[in-house]
Amino acid sequence: MGESNLETRSFLDEIRGFDKNSYLDLGHPLLNRMADSFIRAAGIGAARAVTREAYFTALESGGVDSDVGANKKHHRFPDLRGEDSRKSLEALVRRTGKESLQWGMAAGVYSGLTYGLKEARGVHDWKNSALAGAITGATIALTTEDNSHEHVVQCAITGAALSAAANLLTGIF
Question: ∠ at Cα 111 (127, 103), nearest 5°?
């Protein structure tokens, strides 16, 4: 065995093993699951924030109007047009960090709740997913600028519906 396992693994093997590998071992499956979900989703959230900003910057520099009809979409990072590039970079890092924390928190809370409910009830079904989705949706709603009662309830209902539907459709596809 001259070669180690790392040298013989292909990129496709890495993708296939992504779900099985754990980034951290915190000593308890619940903590491990929450931390892994947080790290993976935070990375996705950061990538999303940066690519969205690059998209809007490319549209604006190309002279394309990104506003749609009377419903104007606001630029997600208004501070990026700072007085100099240092302030713009600081605004990008601050906003990207906030969004990655939101994504990570959502994944960690949802993953932890589904695991805890499965352990408490002894079964993983759509009810666990719906409750975890509702609590996660409400939690995310509280981190936004509009954290009114109606917005929190709407996000909780949306989270419950999406996660319950995803759980029910898992066996179909």
Answer: 120
Token digits of residue 27:
């000593």
User: Binning pLDDT at 50, 70 and 90, where does residue 69 land?
Assistant: very low
CA–CA separation, 5 vs 172, rounded Å?
Answer: 35
pTM for this prediction: 0.68
Per-residue pLDDT at 72 exceeds 50:
no
- Cα 147 to the center of its chain, rounded Å: 19
DSSP 2-15: -S-HHHH--HHHHH
Cα–Cα distance, 150 to 141 (Å, whole number):
10
CA distances for 12 relative to 17, 19, 20, 23, 150, angstroms: 9, 13, 14, 18, 45
